[in-house]
Structure formats: structure tokens, C-alpha cells
Specification:
Largest sheet of chain B: none
Distance between the termini of chain A: 24 Å
Number of strands of chain A: 0
Order of helices and strands of chain A: HHH
Strand content of chain A: under 5%
Largest interface: A-B, 15 and 18 residues
Shape of chain B: globular
Number of strands of chain B: 0
Radius of gyration of chain A: 17 Å
Radius of gyration of chain B: 22 Å
Largest sheet of chain A: none
Oligomer: heterodimer
Structural class of chain B: mainly alpha
Number of helices of chain A: 3
Number of helices of chain B: 8
Distance between the termini of chain B: 56 Å
Shape of chain A: elongated
Strand content of chain B: under 5%
Number of domains of chain B: 1
Chain lengths: 75, 254
């Protein structure tokens, strides 16, 4: 059986991969929209950039918690 | 064993033997040395930059540019003009974290002090205590918890839902995610560099000209540059979020 051969480490890596999908989409959408905002209104670029980093920090935290859980579960 | 190469377990790449006092509470190892050097450099920026010449030179120039950067990019957007008294705290926080991170790419050291959870956790808890105290001083003990847990402008019935969410997200999850964001970013970067360094070292011992293969060797160079950017960005994000949290707890408009 294939399922019987999956180890804890393999499962942790797989789960981290699944968990990284959401934040990946989130950061892509966030940066894309920010670039569009900066292109439309270059004078607001500084404010948009600060807010963008803030948003990235919040979204990225999800992926990073997954990364930590990966080590807790896998090692 | 991957590709016939031995990858060290996680403990080996972040755990360093002590120079003196192995196993004692005051043990001095590489990470403690990095804490000390970073604190020293941060103090140097404050002391050497404090010259007050009309035309700034050298260290004063650097200090003025960086304080201006912290004020324009972190303090003013998050706290407004009342927040200017927090500039010294956020400046020292930014520089201390940045110096701790940048040791990742400095030869001989090559260890970000923030890849051990102790320092990010301490800094996040320090910020946590500070913004709660600042909020209590601004609103009073009762007023602060009322402002945090019962945000105005929400229909009364919804407080059953909103208050537990606010309680968990503000007082429990916030310091945790603040810690993990810095810690995991630096740990991930460190593992990335170690992995590619081991790969290229393994290829080099097999066939010396293998270092000129595009993937492992150039990846080490590329990721080193990437880690410099991450060091700066994570120090910036940590200070920015500290500013946001302080700003949220002292603001009156919500």
C-alpha cells in the first residue's frame, strides 16, 4: 500500500505544501493590486508600499506558522 | 541522505558549542556573541551619530538618514505626530534586529541570531508589554479593555461574536505571530543557505569544476543577496508592526 509508506516527515512536508497555497495566492493578489494602485496613482506610492508590506506581513504569517508546524510534526 | 550527501539535522545548524562556560547559565557561544555585537553596533549608531554638526559627516549622516527613514516610513504612517516620542524605541529595535539578522551573511559568523526563537520572543513580548502599558496609560485600565474588546460602531448583538475574536486575536495570537514571523523567516533563510552550501560543497569534493554548474553555487550567491534583503525587510516589518500595535492601542478613533 502506498499510504502505509508515508512517513511523518513526508506527511509534514506535504501538509506544509498544501498550507502554502493560500498565502501564495494571497500575497500574489496583494502585490498585484498594489502595483496596479501605484501605477494608477504614482504620488500615493509611498503609502501604498507601507500598507502592502503590512498586508504581506499578515498573510505571510500563515505560511510561516505552517513552516514551524512542519518542523514540529516532521522532526 | 539525499544525492549521497549527509544533511545535518536542524539542531546542528542553529546550536553552537560555548566558547566558555559550556552548560552554565552564562554560557558564551556564537549567538550570545552576536547579541553583544549587535547591541554594541546599535549603541555606536546612537553615540557616534549624536554630534549635532550643521553639515553632517560620517556616522552622523548615517544616523540622521536612518532616523528620518524610521520617522517617515514607520512612525508617521502608523501613529501620526503624537507617535514621534516612540521614534527612539523603534529605531533601536530596527537596528538591533537588523544587525542580528545581517550576521547571516557575514563570513565566520553566518548565523542569524533571530533563527533561535529566544530573541524574537523576547522582543515581541517587550513590545507586547509596552503597547499594553501605553494603552492603559492613555485610556485607563477599564477604558483600554473596553476600547480593545468592544470596538464602537458594532451592533450590540454582534459583541457576542466580536469580543471573543478580539480577545484572542489581540491578546493571545498577536505576540505569537509577531514572534513567529521574524523567527521563521530567518530560520528558513538559514536552512536555505545551508542546504545549497552543502550541495555545492558535495559537488566540489566530487569534481572540482562542478562549482561552475549553474544551480548550487550560483544559488548560494543569489540567496545570499536575497538574505540581505530579507534581513532588512524583516527588521522593517517587525518595527512597522510594533508601531501599528502601539498606534492601535493608544488611538482614540475606534
Amino acid at each position: 500500500m502506498l499510504l502505509a509508506e508515508i512517513t511523518d516527515t513526508g506527511l509534514a512536508a506535504l501538509t506544509y505544501g498544501l498550507g502554502a497555497i493560500g498565502p501564495g495566492i494571497g500575497i500574489g493578489y496583494l502585490v498585484g493590486q498594489s502595483v496596479q494602485a501605484m501605477a494608477r496613482q504614482p504620488e500615493a506610492a509611498g503609502m501604498v508600499r507601507t500598507t502592502m508590506f503590512l498586508g504581506i506581513a499578515f498573510v505571510e504569517a500563515l505560511a510561516l506558522i505552517g513552516f514551524v508546524v512542519f518542523f514540529l510534526g516532521g522532526a | 541522505m539525499i544525492f549521497g550527501l549527509e544533511f545535518p539535522p536542524l539542531g546542528h545548524i542553529v546550536d553552537w558549542p560555548g566558547f566558555v562556560g559550556e552548560g552554565e547559565w552564562w554560557e558564551i557561544n556564537k549567538v550570545v556573541l552576536i547579541y553583544g555585537l549587535s547591541a554594541l553596533f546599535t549603541a555606536l549608531i546612537f553615540t557616534l551619530g549624536n554630534k549635532k554638526q550643521l553639515v553632517p559627516t560620517g556616522a552622523q549622516n548615517l544616523a540622521e538618514v536612518s532616523v528620518e527613514f524610521i520617522e517617515d516610513q514607520i512612525v508617521l504612517p502608523t501613529m501620526g505626530h503624537e507617535g514621534l516620542k516612540w521614534t527612539p524605541y523603534l529605531t533601536s529595535l530596527f537596528f538591533f534586529i537588523f544587525f542580528c539578522n545581517i550576521f547571516e551573511v557575514i563570513p565566520i559568523f553566518q548565523m542569524p541570531a533571530n533563527a533561535r526563537i529566544a530573541l524574537p520572543m523576547f522582543l515581541a513580548l517587550l513590545t507586547y508589554v509596552l503597547y499594553n502599558l501605553a494603552g492603559i496609560r492613555e485610556h485607563g485600565l477599564f477604558g483600554y479593555f473596553k476600547a480593545m474588546l468592544f470596538p464602537p460602531g458594532v451592533p450590540k448583538a454582534l459583541y457576542i461574536l466580536v469580543t471573543p475574536i478580539e480577545l484572542i486575536s489581540t491578546f493571545i495570537v498577536r505576540p505569537f505571530s509577531h514572534t513567529v514571523r521574524l523567527f521563521a523567516n530567518l530560520l528558513a533563510g538559514h536552512i536555505l543557505l545551508v542546504t545549497f552550501a552543502i550541495l555545492s560543497a558535495g559537488l566540489f569534493t566530487a569534481k572540482w569544476y562542478a562549482v561552475f554548474l549553474p544551480l548550487p553555487a550560483f544559488a548560494v550567491v543569489f540567496f545570499t543577496a536575497f538574505e540581505v534583503m530579507v534581513s532588512f525587510l524583516q527588521a522593517y516589518v517587525f518595527a512597522l508592526l510594533s508601531g501599528v500595535y502601539i498606534g492601535l492601542s493608544v488611538s482614540h478613533d475606534h
